[in-house]
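Bug: token stream looks shifted between consecutive jobs. Job 1:
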Amino acid sequence: MYDEKRAFRYCVISMVIFVVTILIGIEKTEANTELKVGTYHCPPFIFHDKSQEFEGLSMTLWLRISEIMKVDYSIQNYELDDLLLAAEKGDIDVGVSCISITPDREEHVDFSHSFYETHLAITVKNRGYLDSFISIITNKTLWKALGIFFFVAISVGAFYYFLERKNNDKLYSMPTKRGRLAEAFILGVLFITKGPFNYFEFKTLSARIMTVLIAMFSTVFIASITAILASSLTLEQLRFDVKGVNDLSKLQVGAKQATTTSLLLTDHSIAHETYPNMRELLVALDNGDVDAIVADDAVLRYMIKQGKAKEMFADLVVLPYQLEKQNYGLVLVENSEYEEEINRALLQIRETTEWHQILLEYFTEK
């Protein structure tokens, strides 16, 4: 009888311990379901509304994922590099923004499946024919080249005038001195542009000898002036006819700092100015501080669309040329215990009609 009571007592104690262990486990599980989410300001994927609540395409996606996973979360905003570092150190569980999946980043953090595919694009300021004409005629290189040309033409004309004015009535036939000086200038222009006159047009030996020497000089001179003007005018044309990344090498280019865009331009040896955010980058282009900017196509189109609604960026256009493709994913801690669950939820959301409607809402130009 005593043994039966003892066994019963042990059984009750064991059950109590088991129940307490289960309850503690449940309590710990519930305590650990709040995930730490890091964000990075990148309209239209992440931005603050007027009440300082986080909104955007990526936040909408994360809201749906958290509902499917049935988890709570807290949010902290970072700069891009700080967000990636926080994920690498395990200070956050998930990074939510417009973060490109790249091999370099994969060495330090993990990513979810891609939730948005895009590409880098070039944006320029669209100018009319009048602006193009004004830009060309105000080109400093053009006026410098013309100044050098007229200086040389006057010098050549003056040289022959002093050698031939008393002996050559054919070249200097005007009755007045002013007229003969005008003929000297015309002679210099024609000599430089059309090459030397007939050797026997000149009466003095000095003029004939210099004719040969200046003839060689004029050929090189005209070729140099032509090259300078062609390069300058071609550069002006490129400002309105950029077709790819290689056309950017001779322009003033802008990009957002610490992004894959800046890395791409550096890899192509394209010097560029960097700006801390997209707004300042677009303002720089609109003000003429740079000739072209390179950034994510979706972000460019959204920001320009928002600007036009506020009567800004009216002349900015995104060119229809795709540069490097980009895939955006959620940033995860390496070997995250939530990775599989997040990916399942993400794929489930991407297949819904609601998700496609959200994409149209953000990116369809009105």
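Job 2, same session, no restart:
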Amino acid sequence: MTKLFLVRHGQSQWNLENRFTGWQDVDITELGEQEAKQAGIALKDETVDVAFTSKLIRAQHTLKIILNETGKTDMPVIIDGALNERSYGMLEGLNKAETAEKYGAEQIHIWRRSFDIAPPGGESLKDTYDRVIPYFENFVQPQLQQHKNVLIVAHGNSLRALIMYLEHLSPEEILQREIATGEPLTYALDDQMNAVKLGKSLYIQPKTVV
């Protein structure tokens, strides 16, 4: 068995401000840093051989804190835009509540929670899946097949796409899955790359930063 660890980046500034972020390069908040440290504590006693992350600073900063906390700063790190968050196109930077007032809550819900309907100029979750999964199969899976434990620090929707693949979930099922910031998810994979989700790693919710 080999292990795959998935971590969504810590709270970003635009998470805090309730904005659509997507591909915008927004860093994590003080709370996000605390969440990353807690993820590092959760993973400290785990063996991790290689890490993957996106091209966006909020994921890279989270990974850096995790590696510092675990003492694994010399680990190989692979950065690729294939793991970026879903693009929200013309919605990026806009406040979610104000956007719902402009376009209607039902339309915003369709753009955010439909599997194959994209917001204007952006990506659907299906588009994100079609970007993430080939990358996983071609670059991450070979590491797992060499019995290396892998850490991926990425984003809510890129990880949602990966979880859909690993757990063989339907579009309806994956749309109901919420992924907490900074909370590691652990999967064990056999030699045929069949994945089993393990119990949650130790995680302590950081105190809210005022």
